[in-house]
Amino acid sequence: MKNKTLIFSLLFVIMNLAAQAQNIEMADTMRSNGKIFVVVVVAAVVSIVLSIYMISIDKKVSKLEKKVNETK
After folding, report:
1. What is the DSSP code string of 11-47?
2. Alpha carbon distance 46, 65 (integer Å)
3. What is the C-alpha separation between 46 and 38, in angstroms, rounded?
4. Model pTM?
5. What tens-digit pLDDT sequence spans the chain (72 residues)?
6. What DSSP designation does 40 have?
7. Distance CA 54, CA 56 (A)
């Protein structure tokens, strides 16, 4: 299960690096208006919620796997 977490973490890091590599004029406009912080907060909240959801699903699947293995 730790392998899955590692893979998803690496995926997020790669996506972050790819996003930083782009030079977008819209970001400069939003930064000057002060709206970029709203975008950053929303992206952070979505990432945190998805991470928590994936961890909870992983725990549930682990419990089910243990039950199945115990009944065999």
Report:
1. HHHHHHHHHHH---HHHHHHHHHT-HHHHHHHHHHHH
2. 28
3. 12
4. 0.55
5. 567 788 878 887 887 776 665 666 766 777 788 887 888 899 999 999 999 999 999 999 999 999 999 887
6. H
7. 5
